[in-house]
Amino acid sequence: MDFNYAAAAPEIFLGLAICVVLLVDVFLKDEQRETTYVLAMLALIGTAAVNLYFAVSAEVVTFNGAYVTDPASGVLKMFAYVALGVTFLYSREYLQNNGLLKGEFFVLGLFGLLGIMIMISAHSLLTLYLGLEVLALSQYTLVAFNRDSAASAEAAMKYFVLGAIASGALLYGISLLYGITGTLQLDELAARVGAAEISIPALLALAFIIVGIAFKFGAVPFHMWLPDVYQGAPTPVTLFIGSVPKLASFALVWRVLSEGLGPLHDGGWRDMLIVLCVLSLGLGNLAAIVQTNIKRMLAYSTISHVGFIFMGFIAGTDAGLSAAMFYTFAYVLMAAAAFGMVILLSRRGFEAERLEDFKGLNARSPWFALVMLMIMFSMAGVPPFVGFYAKLVVLAAVLNAGLVWLAAVGVLFAVIGAYYYIRVVWYMYFADATDQTPLAAAADMRIVISANALGLLALGLFPGGLLDLCARVLGG
Amino acid sequence: MNWPILSVVIWLPILGGIAVMLCGSERAQLGKQLALGVSIITFALSVPLWTGFDASTAAMQFVENLPWIERFGANYALGVDGISMPLVLLTTFLTPFVVVAGWEVIETRPTQYFAAFLILEGLMIGTFAATDALLFYVFWEAMLVPMFIIIGVWGGARRVYATVKFFLYTFLGSVFMLVALIYMYLQAGDYAIASFHELRLTMNEQIFIFLAFLLAFAVKVPMFPVHTWLPDAHVEAPTGGSVILAAILLKMGGYGFVRFSLPITPDASHELAWLMITLSLIAVVYIGFVALVQADMKKLIAYSSIAHMGFVTLGFFVIFAATPASPVNDGARMALQGGMMQMLSHGLISGALFLCVGVLYDRMHSREISAYGGVINTMPKFAALMVLFGLANAGLPGTSGFVGEFFVILGTFQANPWLAFLAATTLILGAAYTLWMIKRVVFGDVANSHVAALTDVGAREFWMLMVLAVAVLIVGVWPAPLVDRMDASIGQLLMHVGQPKL
Predict the structure, then answer these.
(1) Phi-psi region of B314 (alpha: psi -120 to 50; beta: other; left: phi over 0)
(2) Closest residue of chain A to B183, computed from CA coordinates
(3) A400/B24 Cβ within 8 A
(4) Would you call B372 helix, strand, or coil by DSSP?
(5) Structural contact between residues B373 and B255, judged by C-beta atoms closer than 8 angstroms
(6) pLDDT reading at A35 higher than 60
(7) How many CB atoms lie within 10 A of CB A400?
(8) Helices A443-461/A71-97 angle, 10° precision
(9) For residues B225 and B312, is the Cβ–Cβ distance under 8 A?
(10) Chain A residues with CB inside 8 Å of B112's CB?
(11) Does any CB of chain A come closer than 8 Å to the CB of residue B436?
């Protein structure tokens, strides 16, 4: 038996920490919920420390080939800790103001993180599925977390039903693959798939798996849940769903398609992803234009970003994969900041979720208008913000793969997409404020969201480090 | 040069702009003074670019090169040659005027206004000075952000429409250039513009790359038929915005043609020269007529800008009509020089004309020509200067407007007398629309009580226009130093163009 517990140390630590948080939370009174928040943060810091301590410089496969730790998974997980920490920090005050500061939010968030970590480190399709379900169940529950809101309940129901179908499709694809190859372990899978001709059953299995992946990413035509869930969920939950799990979605494609089914790239999943990519770019950008609710607009914008992330996968090279990873990182940073701004503008009894609520922000707070401006231009892909380099690397990847037309489609939709991002800027700068209430966010939130936006700028001026990191861990 | 002069003139205004922004609305006066100080110091610091320039070489000068994104082979590489150096100076020279022009006029959030212009200045200089294509693109696109804000916040009644149109038009143009740049990077292995110049591309590749560039640069120039954003943007922009737009942003397109299109895709340029010449002549003739019927002064100058920029692109592409294009071909050399001179001179003249309109607008809050008449009776000093700029716009000999047009027409004549004939109609049309406007606005009897109540320009406005008038005359009377400094670079450009890459 091959049990190397050190390789899974962060997950083990986090699992134990969650149990502690859960137990302590039971004995806390409602006014002491801050303790849960602090404990959750400590759990994150501890997990990060364990992760750093047990960091590996080469791939370590353990638990009979079910689990893997490699430099790329380490980086992805570290990024997930930071992103979840930022999510918690942005959410705390909002939850308090809306009477939602409950231990479950943090516990479920941490469980979701555990699922994400398991997915990132999966080396077998079953491990991957396990992680996926841990994450998905946490998310379903989180969406319904505001019990009194009908919209939240409806969103959670939709999410759950559709998510269950997608999980079923994925599992069915996995079972077909197992039937064809006789293995669930990713490296053996790649070897056996590669040794055989591409067969119809293999393509069928692939199609089911792609459906599952597309659903988790929210790629068109499997995007239906995304706008409703983003809009219906409490904003902190939207912030969570919109940011950290994208790392898991990236890991899903990376592990299953690149590592496990790499030989099926040409004539297999490449073309399927191209279809999803073009549809997502088109529908995401066009539908976002007509939205009046900013959470819904950002949901459609997510769909279009997914199209760009897929471009990196479509290239099918290491460089393409690291481009997709870079895009995912950039996207998580931007999404966290954008939803953070929605939270920042909200206050007790008031949800700043309409686009109109951003009108005249420059008059109310020049600094946060500038912060939002940076976030929006970064999302639109205008330099010198990180969103530009994200688009640059994926475009370079598809051009390198000889898909000039796809790059042209991509940039064309980027221009269309720019419209709804700059509309937010125009509301903030060119329109008069309808709401003169001063912003009342806590200092920690103000500082972190400012740092978040400045990070978009700093990474835009000096993207080299992160680009190198992505390329190094993925061998691109 | 021991100090990184280009970096300083790029980053000083940007950092200065941030500092001005930090002054906030409470310390607006301090912010204004800081903005003026920064813009003047930037100009002073850029003067060594002119005095220390070695006119005998076509190589990049004042070169800086630091590794930036090593994975892409993209460097923080700066340098100027005879083509970009005058444009950098034009930028640093004009920015203080913009600050002065907005001094008393801008009342809403003045510090943000000045900050936006300073940041824009740094980005524009960066665009001209970058010798790395990725760095160029970053500056090129980043310019859109402050310009979007400037038109949208401080513009006229339809400012939102105008600024969104401006943003989307230019953004659409440039993204395809990005695709072309990445495509060439994948072949060349780095982003240095010089390595792009060396690339051997097939005709098909060249045509596609040329068209991608064309979209980006034609929108910026702007060329017919993608010019429609300009009148809107000009009319709605605040005075300073119009000045920068006309004087410098439009030059980005022309600069792009000589820096990218001509040397990288010479064969495609040759192949498609007929298209470029046709579009340029349409801009010169048709837009000239359009300018004639405008009732709004800013719109008239905007259309006149399009016509004048048509001359620039004509000068750049008529060299292919005079085959074979080579450094020894005097006509081609003259046409290119003419195009360059026209860009610089148009920067001065159109900037000055927009400032003149701004002076009138600040008093009467109208840009309609019909609202004026007999301004000379109440504002004699101002009228004299405006007439001078009007004559320069019409290409009067002795002003800078004449030099460029004359060179281009001469060069065109050597290629094809009929093209030269069409191009020369601008002398008539330009005179017609400019002078007719001057006649209706400046001369005649005092038209109404508002005009009768006008006060002449104060010291701030007078010296602002006076300095520009002197510059227009100096360039017009004695263009030799400028031409000499451009000569070597233009020779090298012609050499690139003359070598087929197929």
Answers:
(1) alpha
(2) A399
(3) no
(4) coil
(5) no
(6) yes
(7) 18
(8) 150
(9) no
(10) 362, 366
(11) no
**Do the strands A60-62 and A67-69 form a parallel or antiparallel pair, or are they unpaired?**
antiparallel
Q: Which residue of B has its CA nearest to A457?
A: B142
In three-state secondary structure terms, A17 is helix
- Model pLDDT for residues A103-139, shown as the tens digit of each residue: 889 999 999 999 999 999 999 999 999 999 999 999 9
Residue carrying structure tokens 């298209």 = B275
Report the residue from A384, A400, A464 with minimal CB separation from B70.
A464
B164 touches chain A (CB under 8 A): yes
Show residues of chain A in contact with B69, CB under 8 Å: 463-464, 467
| Interchain CB contact of B70 with A (< 8 Å) | yes
- Indicate the residue of B69, B112, B142 with minimum beta-carbon distance to A467: B69
Question: What is d(CA A375, CA A368) in angstroms, rounded to the nearest whole number?
Answer: 10
d(CA A382, CA A368) in angstroms, rounded, equals 19
Put simply, the chain B residues between 133 and 152 with a CB less than 8 A from any chain A CB are 134, 137-138, 141-142, 144-145, 148-149, 152
pLDDT digits (tens, 9 = 90+) for B363-373: 888 888 888 88
* Interface mutation target, options B109, B159, B176, B182, chain A, most CBs of A under 10 Å: B182
- Half-sphere CA count of B39, side-chain side, radius 13 A: 27
Counts for chain A of helices (H) and strands (E), in that order: 20, 2
Contacts of A22 (CB under 8 A, 6+ apart): A103, A107
Q: Is the ipTM reported for this complex over the cut 0.90?
A: yes
Per the listing, tokens 């303790």 go with A35
Of residues B48, B43, B58, the one with CA closest to residue B5: B48
User: What pTM, to 2 d.p., does this model score?
Assistant: 0.93
Report residue A433 as tokens: 């404020």
Residues B60 and B81 sit within 8 Å (Cβ to Cβ):
yes
Residues of A in contact with B185 (CB under 8 A): 396
Other beta carbons within 10 Å of B70: 12
Integer Cα distance of A402 and A389 in angstroms: 20
Helix%, strand%, coil% for chain A, nearest 5: 80, 5, 20
Task: Give dist(CA A257, CA A206) in Å, integer.
Answer: 9
**Strand ranges for A311-445 from DSSP E:** none
Rounded Cα distance, A330 and A392, in Å: 12
Average pLDDT over residues B256-278: 89
| Angle in degrees, CA B232, B233, B238, rounded to 5 | 120
